[in-house]
Design brief:
With about 240 residues, the chain is of the alpha/beta class. The chain has helices spanning about 65-75, 90-95, 100-105, 125-135, 175-185, 195-210; strands spanning about 5-20, 25-35, 45-50, 55-60, 80-85, 115, 140, 145, 160-165, 165-175, 190, 220-225, 230, 235.
C-alpha cells in the first residue's frame, strides 16, 4: 500500500492587484494544497520493527487518524484538501463494511473533493455509485463517461471550482483509463476518454469561465490525477 500525503504551497500572481513589486503592480494569493491518495482502507496504524545502531526499535506508523490530525493542524482558509482516489479496497474495513467505514472516516477529514481511482471500480458501477452517495464532499472525473441510464449518471462532475482568497481554483479529475479497464470492473456502459485530450478540453472550458492564470481576478487551474506514472514508478 502506498499513501502519498503531499503539502504544496503555491503563490498566484497576476496583474491588476494592489501589491507592488519590482516587475510591476501585482497581487498575490497563497494557496496551500494538502493531497493524499491510495489510502486503500488502511485506517489503522501499523507496527514495524527497525534497527538503529544495532538496537531493534518498534515503531507505530501511519494510520488515518495521524493523517486527519495533520490535515486539521495545517488547514486554514488558504487550503485545498484533495484525495486523488483509491480510497477503498485492501483491508477488512472494506471487506466487512463495503466502503461505509471508509466514507464515514473520510467525511470527518475536511476534503474539498476526491477523484475516482481505478480501485473505486473494483466492485463495479453500483458500488461506486453507493460509495459516492455516502460521501459528504464532491467526487470528480472528467474522462469517465457513464451512459445516461447507468447508475453513475449524474453522480460526479468533470471538475470542481473553489474560490480561495479571491482566486478561483479549477481542479480537473482524471482517472487513468487503461489501468482501470484492465485491472478493475467498470461495466460496458462506461466510456473512458483519452486523458490528455480530456485535460485540454476542460482547461479550455475553465479558461472560458475565467479560471486562468492570465486573467483577473487572479486565478489558476489545477489538474489532479488519480494514478500517475512518474520516473518509471507506478503506484
Amino acid at each position: 500500500m502506498v499513501v502519498l500525503f503531499a503539502i504544496l504551497t503555491t503563490v498566484i500572481s497576476c496583474g491588476g492587484g494592489s501589491v507592488s513589486s519590482s516587475v510591476g503592480t501585482e497581487k498575490t494569493t497563497t494557496v496551500k494544497i494538502l493531497h493524499m491518495n491510495d489510502t486503500h482502507s488502511n485506517n489503522d496504524a501499523d507496527g514495524h520493527e527497525f534497527t538503529f545502531n544495532g538496537v531493534a526499535t518498534d515503531v507505530d506508523m501511519g494510520g488515518i487518524a495521524r493523517a486527519a490530525a495533520l490535515i486539521d493542524h495545517l488547514k486554514d482558509d488558504d487550503t485545498l484538501v484533495l484525495h486523488a482516489g483509491d480510497a477503498v479496497q485492501g483491508t477488512l474495513y472494506y471487506t466487512l463494511f463495503n466502503g461505509e467505514a471508509d466514507a464515514k472516516i473520510l467525511n470527518t477529514m475536511g476534503f474539498d473533493v476526491m477523484v475516482i481511482g481505478n480501485h473505486e471500480f473494483d466492485d463495479g458501477d453500483s458500488f461506486l455509485s453507493s460509495f459516492i452517495d455516502m460521501l459528504d464532499f464532491p467526487v470528480i472525473s472528467a474522462n469517465v463517461i457513464p451512459e445516461s441510464t447507468n447508475v453513475l449518471a449524474g453522480k460526479f462532475e468533470p471538475y470542481f471550482i473553489k474560490e480561495v482568497n479571491g482566486a478561483k481554483i479549477g481542479i480537473i479529475g482524471i482517472t487513468i483509463a487503461g489501468k482501470t479497464k484492465e485491472s478493475s470492473n467498470p461495466s460496458s456502459e462506461i466510456t473512458f476518454e483519452d486523458e490528455a485530450e480530456t485535460v485540454q478540453k476542460y482547461v479550455d472550458e475553465l479558461k472560458k469561465k475565467g479560471i486562468s492564470k492570465n486573467r483577473s481576478p487572479q486565478s489558476l487551474w489545477i489538474l489532479t490525477v488519480s494514478e500517475a506514472r512518474r520516473n518509471g514508478y507506478r503506484h
